[in-house]
Amino acid sequence: MNTYHIANDSLIHYGVKGMKWGVRKTPINNRGKLQKKKVPHHTIHNGKKIIENFNKRLSETKVADGTKVNKATKHVIKRMLERKIKANSIVDSLEKPLYISDEKVNAKGSSKQYIGEEATSVVNPNKETVVTTWSTGSRQRKRYKKGGK
Predict the structure, then answer these.
(1) What are 111-148's pLDDT values in tens digits?
(2) Comparing C-alpha atoms, which of 122, 79, 77 is closest to residue 99?
(3) What's the distance, CA 14 to chain centroid?
(4) What angle do CA 134, 136, 137 make, to 5 degrees?
(5) Which pTM value belongs to this model?
(6) Cα angle for residues 43, 115, 35 (degrees, 5° grid)
(7) Is residue 16 over pLDDT 70?
(8) CA distance 57 to 116
(9) What mean pLDDT, rounded, does the chain reach?
(10) Residue 101 burial (CB < 10 Å; 0-12/13-18/19+)?
(11) Residue 112: what pLDDT?
(12) What is the Cβ-side half-sphere exposure of residue 86, based on CA atoms within 13 angstroms?
């Protein structure tokens, strides 16, 4: 709780209990917007090899519902590096998903979610590409392991 006392034409502020002066909860750039985590330059530089190896692995993957997946976008590789998701987790989510969502169609195209134990992957079945990925939350994992929808 903030407390203010005015004495002798001065304003005294005692602050909030536990507050650290000069420390922000979230990093904010000079324009007042939240900064995104940046991928180290050396990982982007080596990204071509990562993409080639991952695409080769994806083309050999047998997706659970028969959808073909031949490649991953650069966006997926960046998200894998930022979110520390292993390629094995993505392949596992495609081969042995806990749940596969219905195909959704919007202005950008169509997409399907494959929810695995460690990662959730989004695939564009028309372009046969993995579009994005993130870690599967513990609540989702528990819900789909029990067989829920």
Answers:
(1) 999 999 999 999 999 999 999 999 999 998 999 888 76
(2) 122
(3) 40
(4) 120
(5) 0.67
(6) 40
(7) no
(8) 17
(9) 79
(10) middle
(11) 94
(12) 6
Q: Any residues with CB less than 8 A from the CB of 79 and at least 6 apart, and which?
A: 85, 132, 133, 134
The contacts found for 2-7 with CB under 8 angstroms, 24 or more apart, are: none
What is the rounded distance in angstroms from the CA atom of residue 127 to the CA atom of residue 31?
37
49-66 pLDDT, tens digit each: 777 888 888 888 889 999
Give Cβ neighbours of residue 142 (< 8 Å, ≥ 6 apart): none
Question: pLDDT value at position 97?
Answer: 94
The residue type at 104: K
Structure tokens that stand for 19 in this block: 């507050």
| Residue in the structure block whose two tokens are 């659970």 | 64
**Which phi and psi (to 5°) does residue 98 adopt?**
-75, -30
The 3-state secondary structure of 54-107 reads: HHHHHHHCCCCCCCCCCEECHHHHHHHHHHCCCHHHHHHHHHCCCEECCCEEEC
Token look-up 């989702």 returns 140
Extract the tokens encoding 81: 């590096």
